[in-house]
Amino acid sequence: MSSQSISRSLSRRRFLKNAGGTLFGASLLPKFVAGVLAPSEIVRAQATDPPPNLYFAGTDGWIHLPPSPPIEFYFPDDLAPGTDRGYPAGLNTYIFGFRNITGLDDTQKANQKMRAQHNAPLFWVDQFNGSNEFRLQLTNLGLQQRPDLTDSHTLHWHGFRNVITFFDGEPTGSLSVPIGRNFTYVYRPRDPGTYMYHCHVEDVEHVHMGMTGPVFVRALQNFTGATGAPIARLGGNTTAGVPMGYAYNDGRALSDPASTAYDREFAIFLSEVWAEAHWCDSHIQLPDWSDYKADFSLLNGRVYPDTLAPNGSVDPFNPARDGNGDLIAPAGRPELQYQPLSALVTCNAGERVLLRFANLGFREASMTLAGIKMRVVGRDATPMIGRDGTDNSYETNTILIGAGESFDCIFTAPSFSGGSGSSGQGYDSYVLHNRRLTQVSNLSGGGLAGQRTEVRVYQSVVDAQQYPNDWGI
Amino acid sequence: MRKSSLKRIRLGKVLLVAGGLVLIGQLAGIPSAVAQTQPAIGIACTNSVSPNPTFNLDAKSGYIVLGDGNTMFMWSYSLGEQSFQYPGPVLCVNQGDTVNVILNNTLAEDVSIMFPGQENVLANGAPAQPQFNGGGALTSLTNAAPPGGSMTYSFVASKPGTYLYQSGTSPEKQVRMGLAGVLIVRPTQGANFVYNQADGRYRFTPEEEFLVFLSEIDPSQHQAAEQNAPFDLTTYHVHYWLINGRTFPDTVADNFASRLPSQPYGALARVHPYDATNHPYPGLARYVNVGFEEIAFHPHGNNGVVIGRDGNPLEGPAGQDLTFEKFAINIGPGQTWDVLVKWYDAENYSPSNPVPVTIPDVANQTIGMWWSGSPYLGVQGPLPPGVTTQNQCGEYYIISHNHALFQLDAWGMTMAGQITYMRVDPPLPNSCP
User: Fold this and answer.
1) Could you list the residue range(s) of the whole structural domain that residue B416 is in?
2) Would you tell me which residues 255-294 of chain B have a C-beta closer than 8 angstroms to some C-beta of chain A?
């Protein structure tokens, strides 16, 4: 049910379902009503508003998943665009998603319709210090593959405490953004940690179709330090040996085992694809969501071994784009143009590595890092510290992460085994995957797919990260 | 095809049944008396007399209505001599009470009640025990009442907390059919505490006590039970997910809403913002998962403080505070979680302290049915032309829902599953009805 169904009109979907009318007859009504009630956009000068820190757009698009074996009827999608329409070869799954359009001109912006990415752009925000509010502007480019579908979009920051409805993005109690319009969310995040965000309009559909991504809040301690914990590199400290950052305002010395200091950080974002639902959306059909299953289980918008492929443009504040404003594909992988976030973890021996897990799939996942213990230092953007200061952090190889849950885990990279490493490639490799092994198969058998990636430990060649998930090599 | 044959509208039948029950209720003067003593929003306790509370529960069948318009044949525990209700009554007792529950079985097969978390339960005066047939095979997890018969269970409610009660007989059928309910044991420290702790860390605001009772339905299993036909458990496939026995939007209707005659429990939470002076204590959500899968429940806008699970406060041997905040309540089958919730007006945005952004013109908004027209708590503002709102006094509606989002579905109807809202009213005094 879109918010329109309650406010402006009966939604197209519910109309379809209730009336059982023809597609065309049903789809005419809301377009007509929307047209009457929402004439062409009144461009507000907004001269008094500071510019946004980021500008995102909601639209549709296509991604690549392993095409073999096919799923009868539904996958690969026969409507996927190809090189004749200016898309890379190999796209096969219809999505809804977000794109970062910060800094694009109007033509470039319009060009991004049906060029969404999955997962949605990673971004991060500094904890509110009294003056640094964060502004995220959202627009809605519409759905090119579904011109009949006039859904609005929102950005719901999942887990943001004490939010007012105006900035929550849940459409029933709030506003959402019609096609061609804009809305700016202003955040004063007071609680560091790992969060996620998604569109909340028609939420089962828009979330499952891919309008989901990770977002972090950087702790104030990065900029202020604490006793025994110097200001971090993120806070501008260039002294050798200081950590890149702190996951939380832990107030602990670096030597404390429960310190949340880290040298590198990686978003590990879980989502799923039910091929039938994606096919239904591209073919103007409606799935019965109560029949849901996950055909593909994704890390950072990809399935293994694509999870190991290089990053595209990841840093939202320094985006690299082509002249049309489009994403630049990861090196050597044109079909991953709209899946820019690598899930490969790279580090040097002895470094502390923060894995920021967030799950916006619909199934619980059991993420196992074979051979290296992780310390769980946070869950749901809450440090593992009791209200009376009791340390509740713990070590494990496996986290059980439910739908809508997040985990912050820090591991210390083991020493390098020497020579060319256990991989023969100059590094030791450790597998990070979903121990719910049905979700590392993609129906392809052999277990070589799905939610699986690697942690690669090098002796010392990995450079400092420029942004999260940066390989440094 | 299976769907269409099952979805035949049984509305006429249910209306007939409901009408008859209302009539009987009026004659006996029973349900109205219960409704009048209960709050419209929040936990509606069924109380008895401490220290020896006695509850008569009838295992019986009835119908409920679901979000896609379907009606569903159910079994449940209902208060003796009263109309069918699902889920069973919320039994509220005090720590130390000797609780007696008399089960009268009107169904055509053995039914029992087990009380997970309670110790030394007696059945007809003897220790309640699993039942076995002559060959040593388990037939029931506890002593059962035969069709037309009864069984009296009693126990001392020794530990405060939130508990489930449920059938121990063919639970894979009977619990799914609805034979389950909630038992709340209030601590000796007082009814405004969840657990005992001298430092008062478990205190809550009694007017803000809410139940989140999560259950699920495979319509094929219910159809089989109604027709007394066999059901292949390996084909179990849930199509409905419920809170407090209802699907959205019925979840936000008041307790005992007259249009839901057999689903008495609403799930709307109604709170006021935290205030150090006037509203210093949090509300309490008692989560119970009676379903068969883990549920990842997500309340927007606040991280609940998880203070107890399965009737046990989260504290160390020396009283260390092991509670934790969560925005995902991952509750397993048969578990209960006690979660303190509060909403804090962090920014105090108001017309005199406006949001730091230009509000889009109404022509450029899509609005929801509860939108007030204003970002500010307690303020109503302009709406797009031709649009009405359910907002009453500028209150906020903040959603709480299962984040396995396909479980917001009612057999193909979206936004008709495990969804409810927290309504944040402006601070008192306010103009809210």
Assistant:
1) 1-433
2) 294
